[in-house]
Amino acid sequence: MNMLSLIIKREFLTKVRNKSFIVMTLLGPILILGMSLLIGFLSNMNAGEVKHIGIHDASSIFVSKFESNKEVKYINLSAMPLEQAKDTATKTMKALLYIPKVADLNDLNEKLEYISDDSPSMETIMEVENVINTEITHQNLEKMGLNVADIDKAKGNASLKLSKFSGEDSLKGINEIKIAIGSVFGYLIMMFIIIYGNFVMRSVIEEKTSRIIEIIISSVKPYQLMMGKIIGNSLAGILQFFIWGICGAILFFGVNYFFGVQPNSVDPEMIQTAQNEFGSQISLYLTEILKFPLATLLISFVIYFIGGYFLYSSMYAAIGAAVDSETDSQQFLMPIIMPLMLGVYVGFFTVINDPHGTVATVFSFIPFTSPIVMLMRIPFGVPLWQIVLSMALLMGTFFLVVWFASKIYRIGVLSYGKKPTWKELYKWLKY
Amino acid sequence: MDAILEVKDVVKTYGDYTALNSVSLQIPRGCIFGLLGPNGAGKTSLIRIINQITLPNSGQILLDGETLSPKHVIDIGYMPEERGLYKTMKVGEQALYLAQLKGLSKEEAKKQLKYWFEKLHIESWWDKKIQELSKGMAQKIQFVVTVLHQPKLLILDEPFSGFDPVNANLIKDEILELNRKGTTIIFSTHRMESVEEMCDHIALIHKSNKLIEGKVQDVKIAHRTHAYEVGILSSNVERLMVDLTQKFQVGQTDFKSLNDELKLEIQLDGKMPNELLNVLTQNGQVTHFVEKVPSINDIFIKTVSTN
Fold first, then answer.
1. pTM of the predicted model over 0.90
2. B262-267 and B227-233 strand pairing
3. Owning domain of residue B82
């Protein structure tokens, strides 16, 4: 039997039989689901709290314009003197809004006071300012002898309908979903590279500290052992994905079936009427998701996952070979994690603003960030040549890095004792 | 001489450091070869090159007259000084895996494993993990794993370290039996008594150079000092000493004996033993007359300290 496949088999079985793997595979989705539910619950809990804001409006022009809602309750304290209002507000309310009486409403600028011990959220400030400014505008318009109702009527109310050159309709808000899906995939890749890269590293360190390495590499080439380790672990990772994918698909089609979506046959009128119904809204988005370049996305995901994982895990293997224990590895891990983090941040900040901008495009070609950045871009539609070029660069770099890594690995697995320096690692490359 | 392994002018450097400086060795087929040398002499470097773990900078290794190549992996069994097995893997599974890596088929590996497990009475360990075994037990497994694929050449680095005397003896007997069946064995060790006991050829490597190589007998002859240990019961010690010192170099020595005799170490200085005997018998009763044969240990220490 081929040595490489023997090693792959052992690495795969060792990983898959490991209790922590089984637990992670089963608990992973539950944990992720639980986390999202918890986050949702926590943000809802915050939203459920009603803020009380007192208003002392000396002129009584504005107070009636503030409408309480379920988040903010406005209380009119204009009847009492300012000092008393302040007193009352400190004791029972979040804040006091003080609107002084002025001859000309335009003089109000900088005279309005929001008195509170905590700084208000942007949302609150904007809302308060908005109410007051609208009223000032109204009053000004009336002073000029214009009819407010007419002006409201005259206001334009156009909104963009999004579509593509291919003629398909797009849904507003679908960009957010694209971002979400791209981010999830990009993030998954990063997490997997870090987690499985660490598995590879730990497995190398284990062989090194248990000293079996010398027996193994008297039978096979260090390169074979390293590749077997990387491939075996990646297969375990793919298996884990596969299991999660099946769970996800069952969930997806379950939801789909529940809300009754017919893929690719959405009636535009139905979109209009369904807009307000929650269930139909979901079905609408699910339909849109089905229109994503799903096949491209999934295939790219697998390729970028494997490419990115191979690239990074060969570096992890080299580090594992260079050190004697996991604690020594920190110094060398930094340069590995940096580009991964960079990929995620570029993805989150640049791709979201401009998926096809220069920064996003360049980073989706650089092999160390491309698995993450390109995946985030793909939902927005990326030309095929870009994907192919980026994958080719990734694979090319992978072979280069593996070549370097195996040189370090070859020397490192037999070097015990002191932690090597960067300079020594460089020297090993030349042996 | 029919050599199973020939090392020709092997040079190995690590950066600026030279681990092996043009070392050549011939390891005769069927012998037990002791590879000696102080720590850091280059023994492990040489062994790793023979095992194709590392490549020499220059030089050649021939196994059975062929340049060493990956196909020879199955011909060599190697037990490194630093023992190691997968701690969390089951004994049987692990041994099978390692044997398959050597190139054995699964069936053949199973058959051999069964043979060895029965021979060493360790069948019940098959499903145990290495971490559940004691150090000595793990060592036995290590030995089995090393010899499982019936290599022609067995390289054992400090084979007896970690064994208690009973198990060390057991393993020694197994090694000798393998040797009788035709396996060539290379020992790398510091334990000179086992070299003395088992090896028929030795080589001494010191500071990256080979200093001594050959049959144990020949090496000893080359290092003989022509000194004799003599015990004599003499009534006239003064005359004896005068007679002796005229012809020989005489010194004091000590050895175990039942008599209360004079114990001397006498250097022949190119004369024949009988001449010495003549002088001795003229002056008293000879109770002890033995040539001082240098031990491997003496040769080792002398060679290493003078170089």
1. no
2. antiparallel
3. 3-87+137-221
